[in-house]
Amino acid sequence: MNPHEDGAKRDVSATLLKVLVHRRTERGMRLEPFASRCVRAGEVHELVATDHTDTAEGARIDRVGFLGFAEITAAGVVDRGDEVWIGPRRVGVVLGFDACHTPNHYNVLIHADPAPTGRELALRPEEPVVFRQGSPGTVAEVFRTPSAENVEECPK
């Protein structure tokens, strides 16, 4: 979030469709130059955890844990720094986007350290996914926050 440009926004909601359970250490994804993407209801995007923190255009993302695919249920804007919640778990924060599979789908890269897989988080199809506006701060501050913490519910 850029506090000099960004005002409040609504949460982007989605539903987990498929759980992924694998990881890679040499994936070779490349960070897109965009800090945000608009998403439409009905689109399906892949959720990928990584411990990388570099947000430079073209940064190589190798260490990843695949979480799953989610269908967007309420359109909106997903921004770098947004918190990502799956069910009661705060999985991490949006690092950026990889477009190697577009126009089929984006890989939404989520900073989490360590980077879990869907199996390691015990994810299940039909769990709600929420992209919630993150707190203003520097990139370093945003990516220092704890990841994959379990809470009773996603705070409103």
TrEMBL record:
InterPro entries the record matches: DUF6917
Listed Pfam families: DUF6917
Domain of life where this protein originates: Bacteria
Domain DUF6917: 7-132
The protein, known as: DUF6917 domain-containing protein
